[in-house]
Write a structure and sequence with these properties.
The protein is α/β, with parallel strands linked by helices. It folds into two domains: 30 residues, no CATH class; 181 residues, P-loop containing nucleotide triphosphate hydrolases (Rossmann fold), CATH 3.40.50.300. 48% of the residues lie in helices and 11% in strands. Strands 2-3-4-1-5 form a five-stranded parallel sheet, with helices on both faces. Strand 3, helix 8 and strand 4 form a beta-alpha-beta unit. It is elongated and about 80 Å long. Bound molecules: adenosine-5'-diphosphate and magnesium ion. The site of magnesium ion has 5 residues, from helix 5 and strand 3.
Length: 235
């Protein structure tokens, strides 16, 4: 006849815990570390995930420029769910050309715009690079497939292209910028571009093929000529 036994919990069964400790020890894991693990995983919201992928300086940036906010609304309006019930994702949309002096707050608004979209519940696959870093990545080298690099920046739904026109110009710089801008222009993918240059200087720097496309695909956002970095240090 089978005897009834109360269900055992792990805490009531030291032998089970001892066996587990031996198994963990054999794998080089200290039981104390396992006991210290929280029962519930920390909630990891889309906004937390976004912050983790951002440079610390801009992790709490939230766009507040009226034209940048208007842009987020346009991009959000064009977002679409890949399947029923799925989160809406950035698809196509307009771009911004944010122009102003160094320290005016252009990069802050760019990262802040991505945050506003995520806060609105939109799924955003995005990348950010400075133009100078991009050209460095695209320089022919034996261990990188530069065509794949260009393709990744060309296809990502939302791109922050920071400090366009700041790198020394050359035929290479003009050509690579043209290839990237032209692909994003054709695909109508939203791009947040920042620059220190005036449009006339940008044209001299990158050529008419680039600036003509930028003129059509972007809304220009002029920043007040104030260097916030110097202001902050003076405060
Ligand atoms: N709206 C803002 N609120 C608070 N800090 C800001 C704001 N805009 C810019 N900053 C801060 O001012 C500094 C310069 O801004 P940044 O966006 O890097 O300038 P830019 O890209 O135009 O050179 C940074 O430290 C940034 O965090
Ligand atoms: Mg900047």
């Amino acid at each position: 006849m089978r005897t009834h036994r109360d269900p055992q919990t792990l805490a009531d069964a030291p032998s089970v815990l001892d066996r587990m400790a031996r198994i963990l020890a054999a794998r080089g894991i200290d039981r104390a570390t396992v006991d210290a693990l929280p029962d519930e995983p920390e909630p990891f919201s889309p906004e937390d995930a976004l912050s983790a992928g951002m440079p610390p300086r801009y992790r709490s940036a939230v766009a507040d420029h009226p034209l940048v906010l208007a842009w987020t609304r346009q991009v959000a309006a064009q977002a679409a769910a890949p399947s029923t019930g799925a989160r809406r994702q950035v698809t196509t949309g307009p771009s911004l050309l944010m122009a102003g002096v160094t320290g005016a707050g252009k990069t802050h608004q760019a990262y802040g715009a991505v945050r506003v979209l995520v806060q609105a519940g939109i799924g955003v696959r995005w990348r950010a690079t400075t133009a100078a870093d991009l050209y460095a990545e695209l320089r022919p080298s034996s261990d990188t497939d530069t065509e794949r690099v260009l393709s990744a920046y060309s296809r990502v739904p939302l791109l922050i292209l920071d400090d366009l026109g700041a790198a020394k110009t050359s035929e290479f710089v003009e050509e690579q910028t043209y290839r990237l801008v032209n692909r994003r222009y054709n695909a109508m993918l939203p791009t947040l571009i920042t620059t220190n240059l005036r449009i006339s200087d940008l044209k001299a720097h990158l050529g008419d093929r680039v600036t003509s496309r930028l003129a059509e695909m972007t809304t220009r956002v002029e920043f007040e000529p104030v260097d916030r970095r110097r202001l902050q240090r003076a405060a």
